[in-house]
Design a protein that fits this description.
globular; Rossmann fold; 7-stranded mixed sheet; alpha/beta; 10 helices
């Protein structure tokens, strides 16, 4: 399923804003993205792993994160272009925006398909999947990438005081699993940072003039405990070091949602201006 909002006066070949999300707050997302007034076609694809099609659809992504979700979202873009004629290829035509897991997808898309997407806005994105030391949900990384049996996830667990006695100083403690080389290798391969490095390496070996990556705006909460801020800054430095156009706004005291008054206002205005800057009218 792809949620669409199409300008009613002109239904053909309009600029498209693709919003990658993994959230049930669809009215909020539609209102926020539509208020940017940047494109006539707003797409919010229900990729595998998002709510809406039952628990089996959510579990289906486990072990296929970084492949199935990326393919779903990109396929929805191509369908809007080739199947429904609601968007078109070219500079200033297709934009992508996402936060957290959605930012993970968006970062992959611009690294894998830089000729399709014209610009991107990433909000506290997951960039380096092996960097789990600073997150409050390490189970997400183990489960989504196929190691859920190494980190048992239980729904709404009860707090058992007796578990306190099971520590590193006492026997039979079921500790958080180690990030073994096998697990890390898979997390590394699934990371947007790895996809970006692979693209840059391949580009450097081509004899013909290289194409630029889509310009990227990063919105980062300095107090984010869900996705460490260093993940966003890592992507920033990789792009900056490659000579790409990238900017990063860091919001002190802001956590994962970036929902404080200043962060919401500045983030919205910065996103609007960034995507307009690289839109069809500016590129023509």
């Amino acid at each position: 399923m792809v949620a669409l909002m199409v300008h009613q006066q002109q239904r053909s070949r309009q600029a498209q804003l693709l919003w990658c999300y993994k959230d049930v707050r669809l009215p909020y997302l539609v209102g926020y993205a539509n208020s940017l007034a940047l494109s006539d076609t707003l797409s919010l694809p229900n990729y595998t792993g998002t709510p809406g099609y039952g628990q089996d659809n959510i579990y289906k992504l486990l072990g296929q994160c970084g492949s199935l979700d990326i393919e779903d979202v990109h396929a929805s873009t191509l369908y809007l272009v080739n199947g429904l004629s609601l968007a078109r290829h070219g500079k200033g035509e297709i934009f992508v925006m996402g936060g957290s897991h959605g930012g993970f997808i968006a970062a992959h898309l611009i690294s894998r398909y830089p000729d399709i997407y014209s610009a991107a806005v990433l909000r506290n994105p997951v960039i380096s999947c092996g960097d789990i030391a600073g997150t409050d949900i390490p189970d997400w990384y183990f489960a989504e990438f196929g190691f859920q049996n190494d980190f048992q996830v239980h729904s709404s667990p009860t707090f058992d005081l007796s578990s306190i006695s099971k520590s590193s100083l006492t026997p039979n403690f079921d500790a958080t699993p180690d990030l073994t080389p096998i697990i890390y290798d898979k997390l590394y391969e699934a990371s947007p940072s790895t996809a970006l490095l692979k693209y840059l390496k391949d580009r450097s070996q081509r004899p013909e003039p290289f194409a630029r990556l889509p310009p990227v705006l990063l919105l980062i909460g300095a107090a984010d405990q869900r996705v460490p801020p260093t993940q966003g800054s890592t992507f920033y430095h990789l792009l900056k070091g490659a000579g790409e156009e990238v900017e990063m706004l860091i919001f002190e005291g802001e956590g994962h949602p970036l929902e404080g008054v200043e962060a919401a206002k500045v983030g919205w205005e910065a996103s609007r201006d960034w995507l307009k800057k690289f839109g069809r009218e500016q590129m023509s």
